[in-house]
Amino acid sequence: MADVALHTPAGEHTTTGLSNTKLAVWLFLGSECLLFGGLISTFMLYRGRVIGSGPEPAKGWPTAGKLYNIPFTSASSFVLLMSSLTMVLAVASMQRGDRPKARLWILTTALLGCCFLAGQAFEFTHFYRDGAGYTTSLFTSSFYTLTGFHGVHVAVGVVMLVSLYVLSGRQQWGSEKAESVEIIGLYWHFVDIVWIVIFTLVYLIPS
Amino acid sequence: MALIERKGQLELGDGGDRAEPIGVFTRPMAETGWRSWVTTVDHKKIAIMYGVSAIFFFVVGGIEALLIRLQLAQPNGKVVSAQLYNELFTMHGTTMIFLFVIPIGAAFMNYFIPLQVGARDVAFPRLNAFSFWAFIFGAIFLNLGWFLGGAADGGWFMYAPNSGTLFSPSHGIDFWTLGLIITGIASTAGAVNLIVTVLNMRAPGMKIMRMPVFTWMSLVVQFLLVFALPVITVALFLLMFQRNFGATFFNPDAGADPLLWQHLFWLFGHPEVYILILPAFGIVSEVLPVFSKKPLFGYPFVVFSGAAIGFMGWGVWAHHMFASGLGPISVAVFSITTMFIAVPTGVKIINWIATMWGGRLRLTTSMLFAIGLIGMFTIGGLSGVTHAVSPADLQQTDTYYVVAHFHYVLFGGAIFGFFAGFYYWWPKVFGRMLSERLGKWNFWLMLIGMNLTFGPMHIVGLQGQPRRTYRYAPGMGFDMWNKVESVGAFIIALGVLVFLINAIQSRKHKAYELDPWDARTLEWMTTSPPQPHNFDAIPTVHTLDEFFHRKYDEDPATGAMIKVKEADQVLEEMGRDEHIHMPSPSYWPIAVAFGLPILAFGVIYSHILIVVGALMVLGSLYGWAMEPATEPDSGGHGGDVAPSTELVSHG
Amino acid sequence: MMTARRLKLAGALGLGLLALTGCSNNDNPQDTFGADGHYSKLIADLNWVYIAAIVVGVIVGVAVILALIKFRERPGAPVPKQVHGHTSLELTWTILPALVLAVVAVPTIATIVKLNEKPKQCMTIQVVGQQWWWEFSYNNGVTTANEMVIPAGEEVCLKITSRDVIHSFWVPRLNGKKDAVPGRVHDWYIAADNPGDYWGQCAEFCGLSHANMRIRVRALPKADFDKWYQDQAKPATTPTEAAALRGENIYSQQCASCHVIKGAVDAAGNPVDFSKPVPLVSGAAPNLTHFASRSVFAGATFPLYLDDPATPDIDESDPYTAEHPILNRPRLEAWLRNPSANVPMVPDDERGMPNLHLSESQIDDLVAYLAGLK
User: Fold this and answer.
1) Is C154 part of any domain?
2) What mean pLDDT comes out for the span C306-333?
3) Of B76, B343, B466, the CB nearest to C203
4) Nearest residue on chain B to A52, judged by CA atoms?
5) What is the mean pLDDT of residues A100-127?
6) Residue C305: what pLDDT?
């Protein structure tokens, strides 16, 4: 395979021709698949266990049917999906060297991500008012744990996007920095795909 | 334009890719003294730190074992209380697996993978440093239970519901859980780092099937780590949420399934045992050819069998759960998969013997340990095959028979492999030889000790002595063998002591020979110890066992191999590269790592510390991201890459 | 070195011999090779696997030793032939072990099936584990603890569960182990060919006194079993002599909140009320109705009856002796005086029996009462 090191698009010399950072991020995402796999499995096991060991809440034991507002969550999911689109546009702009456009799309992605998180916060506040606390039942515990982990991942992504936005304003960023944007894009798309799986299994498929 | 308040960011200079000093935080440049160790990103220094830490915890775990054996040397023992005993065996297992075998493997892999593939460092040197610091902080954190109300006492496998606060109210299990989350983060980062190194930073000509077996086995191990660690991370988080935030994931009264923990744990736990053994297999695959003066027999088969073990290891986890009520179909399936994983392991054993066969065997200490592994691992592997027969396992599981099995494969396998590595690579790392005389004492004491300790466990296990019991009654027939086992444990301890003495007094030995063992692989094709940049010139590789083939050539008259060049000549002919760029030291890795135990403390004692720890982590990550991998004024070029060197990136 | 070879050889053979000494003998009450009943026999029929493993181990050991002897470095020897492999040989030694294992798999699966087959006829016993003792309940409402009495020569169906953490029911001479998991009921089976005593212990780490959670199975001839079964169903013997009557009073005030004695009355002569929840995490304490008819107590850790009346040893060394007529009074008193000093427990966390701070005369009275509960 390698008698001579190959060049990545960014100019690195690597044996496979893939950039080190990109390869690393793919591996990290691989491990994240297992992480979310474990959390999703736990949820799937416990999704029907709606009766907890504590006292019954005033509004009765919260169930998926009672809590979920599918139209609202669908809208929220759509927002996240669109943020992946804007991320793609950001990467494409960066690769063309169009820094202002790239920054615009990066900021938009971050804002859409924030909208998604705001939607989650709104949703969870309502769930809580409907009697679904973190420790109410196995269903609620595993629901919040799964969506909470996902939410933290989205939040970390937003932080990275905002940092990228700020930094790209201060320094000379040319197309050689496209890879940084691409890598954050990889992470962002992964987080989005995980949400699609969660939305399908947790919200759409009735238990 | 939103301004984010991040530590140090506002003070960043503008323009260029130079990081200006942030307040008093200039880039560390120390090359000697303790500061050079704290800020190092050199894989060799990091490896030595891993090694020293691992050996420290080996001694800690060993003392825990000796206390266990003192208690069990007689029936109805009263050396330690039941509570202390339960903490001792929990911490013995946890320490040996997570704080000794994994980091000593990391030590070997960190030191030798870059050298064996012909690189100057790993792909992400600062991430490498972070992995070490996170490991050591996690390891210390895990052990804090001893000082803060009692160590973890639920067994290293920590089955639910016994791991809940109702059944174990002290903070020991919390330290255990959070400590392992931290060390898991360290290992995951390290695994990603080493995979990228192996795949992307090989010397020209170092094709995948020309890599040394140690590097190959390490690659498989890193993949196993990347995919197995998240599973136990989930389990640990669920347990942590249950113990600290009132969740009921493993509480049957709330409708939970206690077997969930077992499945999550063993899905990690079984690949974990291959993580523990494969590096040692790799070391032995290096040592045997060198001291047999023959190449490894069947290199492709040995490599593929390692990969096969990695894959098949995912399909056997429930063999740890044969008695747990799985149902006969699951039991039958896992019985069969477990039997078949013996096949690739058997292939290795036979290939190793075939390597020796027809060779010219030099029985150095390293070689003795390698041969010892073949013998002892075979015994452990065979008892493992008897475990695969699940009806038999219903008698064996949770008895001393299984304790015998895994100590044969772990002590006689993994640990013997690491000791073979110590004696083989000590001159490479330290430029001094370990004493062969003391080494032989080390070997024989350990070999005899381990057989005396773990051999009889097969018997008492089958005679009905369960494991994890702080005492056994007289009149059961266990008395004599338990005494023998306890004596054996102290003989092992003597062997370890001999090794420590050997290690310390090796400084007085004469300085290195360039190639003391007449070795075969790339790490020997440089000085001992290597310079910080490893190779003066990155070699071009033409074959497996490149170094051997540069020294030896076929005699046209006889067809036999004869030595045509000495090592120093080979080195001289390699020449010198012109522009060598090495990454600069940094303290951000230790800074990020330090935030983790603070965060963990917050979970147990005071939730405000969670925020403090998280901010420390985030702020230090920021500093890390802002800092170029190589400091421009150090002679490196911040963003440049030289041919065949590791690159500078966000790592 | 000659010693190297000899020691390796000795090691390999020695281990083989050691393993063989694991053959059954009566000094090992929990011997897994005991095969004293149908189910443990099914498992023991697979013991040839150990022999096969030893044979393979010896072959490998011999190969290593031969290599050491034949190919030991001799001064001046040339570099050996650099053999890189032999594909057909390697394929053979990959496929051959796989075939051997396939052969092992067949009887393995067959045995798994047989072990899980419900017998056509069986007596059913509910087995419940909790920290740190075993409860056994029979279909006629009888509930005992620590000692499981079964008819010899018949199959017994067990329904195994737990009230707190995971335990494991294991009587090696009669069958392999089966976990007792809270929230689940596991079917398992035992059978003893002959009357006798069969010992076991909890085999899944369950906390502080996991080591003390023992089981004694007494297999009785059918007629004796039937009599035992009927007698156990009767309520407790009413005490007649004064000390025992006082003991019953103390029991009703101090012990009845946890321990059931069917038919016991309080000081006023009313039957004791057992309807209130038991103040323990597990929610149950051993039923003592026919306490004195058992041979063991306190998690089967101590014998209830002893050998030598003159010197009953408070640290009695062997709970596994056969029946003896002398009540183990010192240990029983010590237990009542301070239970956790005898078997480590955590009564402050409601796991295990608390110290009731009984006076010596109270203890004497209680012992008198308990000793009469035949």
Assistant:
1) yes
2) 62
3) B466
4) B254
5) 97
6) 86
